[in-house]
Design goal:
single chain; alpha/beta; 22% strand
Length: 443
């Protein structure tokens, strides 16, 4: 953990009319930022400032803990349906079709479009679950074509200015009893030596401190459980977070039951020493018992409600997670719509629709807006192992600017700010961001 700076004269002193700190809004505070892009102080504003933000509120930047940036290229493309072709797997075939067309340049451009739109929406950090690696689907491709797309994603993030955790994905097979085929071959990890060798190369390829690398096994269907065990153990040794897709669709559960006699979540809970560095993505069909165990071990569940709604996946049992004190993050996943406040309110709304009650995220006791804002910021930062997610001394200076005079913010009050923001706005109320002390402001 990086020590809190005590610099007497910060490089920047930013004065906003309001600042979200410690779960509440503070009036007329100034945020000090040092030359390393870390917050040195948050205190009542006195004296001159280097940047004045009248009529604005500073909040922690949103964190999308799960993204596939290249899937931005599918926006609007998969919304025509034929009989019997409306579920997850027909969509997946369309995604593989996109994969087959990717070049270094198109991968860069789709990633750049996605990351730029994220930043405009107030997302300052992204966990990029990265498995599009190779330039061709040839099983015997030349060495220079392997992992040719990695640099495209890192370069796009650098050029846009978003903080990225590249979630380096292991992907070895097409299913429990299936080999890789078609577009999947471009995801291939040969073996564990290949995986960690590339992991180290990616660490060296990162463009500065705003880029880091973490470990990922795609899923129990794409990676053998024995390999997942060893990858997870090594991730713990290295001190990096570990992410996996888990029980997004029912077929994953039935196939795992056929192969192992256990549900995927059961398998992981029995075989892995899961702790607070583990994130399970989706858990759409995970039973309450397994969700409770994940929560009590400290794991985060990353929900992607706009994606899960788009694909018709289903609805996660949020009540079971919250009852066990579990952490929830959100992900923009296929990036068909980049709007963090929509993602967050739909975490709550789908529970209301399913259970015909309100307040699922807070268990009926507390401010739903504040709870959802925490999910979108500090709990996402926990999932990615980032020192962001709060406007507080010692944290990285990653923030979003909310225009309090925007039409969607009219009628806001300090007491109800978080709920007004989450339940009442889209992306247009965000008028700028700061990533590590670098500001991008739309006047």
């Amino acid at each position: 953990m990086t020590a809190v700076r005590t610099t007497a004269r910060p490089k920047q002193l930013v004065h906003a009319d309001w600042v979200w700190t410690g779960g509440r809004l503070q009036r007329s505070h100034a945020v000090g930022i040092d030359e390393d892009g870390r917050i040195t102080s948050v205190a009542p504003a006195t004296g001159p400032s280097t940047l004045r933000l009248p009529g604005k509120a500073l909040i922690p930047g949103f964190v999308s803990a799960h993204s596939h940036a290249f899937q931005r290229g599918l926006r609007g493309v998969t919304e025509r349906f034929s009989s019997g072709a409306g579920g997850f797997f027909p969509w997946r075939e369309a995604m593989y079709g996109l994969v087959e067309t990717l070049t270094v340049d198109t991968c860069y451009e789709l990633s750049r479009q996605c990351f730029s739109e994220m930043l405009s929406a107030g997302i300052t950090s992204v966990g990029e679950f990265h498995y599009i690696r190779h330039l061709t689907s040839a099983a015997d491709e030349a060495e220079e074509l392997r992992y040719a797309l990695d640099a495209s994603v890192l370069s796009a993030a650098r050029d846009v200015g978003i903080r990225i955790v590249l979630l380096h994905a292991c992907y070895m097979r097409g299913g429990f009893e299936a080999s890789l085929a078609g577009g999947q071959v471009r995801f291939r990890t040969r073996d564990e030596i290949d995986y960690w060798s590339r992991f180290d190369a990616l660490v060296d390829a990162c463009h500065g401190p705003a880029q880091t690398v973490a470990a990922t096994a795609h899923s129990v269907r794409a990676v053998p459980i024995e390999t997942i065990e060893r990858l997870h153990r090594e991730s713990v040794r290295r001190g990096v977070v570990f992410h996996m897709h888990l029980e997004e669709v029912r077929r994953e559960i039935t196939d795992c039951m056929a192969a192992h006699g256990k549900r995927p979540a059961q398998l992981l809970l029995e075989r892995l020493a899961i702790d607070d560095r583990f994130t399970a993505v989706h858990c759409t069909h995970t039973c309450a018992e397994d969700l409770t165990q994940l929560a009590t071990r400290g794991a985060t569940v990353c929900l992607c409600p706009l994606t899960e709604g788009n694909l018709g996946d289903g609805i996660c049992d949020v009540a079971a997670i919250r009852a066990a004190g579990g952490a929830i993050a959100f992900g923009s996943d296929l990036n068909s719509r980049l709007a963090p406040t929509e993602e967050l309110r739909w975490i709550e709304y789908v529970q209301r629709v399913r259970h015909e009650t309100r307040g699922a995220v807070v268990g009926g006791d507390g401010d739903a807006g504040a709870a959802l804002l925490s999910i979108g910021t500090e709990q996402g930062a926990k999932s990615l192992g980032l020192e962001t997610g709060a406007v507080a001394a010692g944290k990285l200076a990653d923030m979003a600017i909310v225009d309090l005079n925007h039409a969607t913010m009219l009628g806001w009050t300090p007491e109800h700010f978080a709920s007004h923001l989450i339940f009442g706005t889209g992306t247009s109320a965000v008028c700028g961001t700061c990533v590590g002390g670098t500001w991008r402001i739309r006047r």
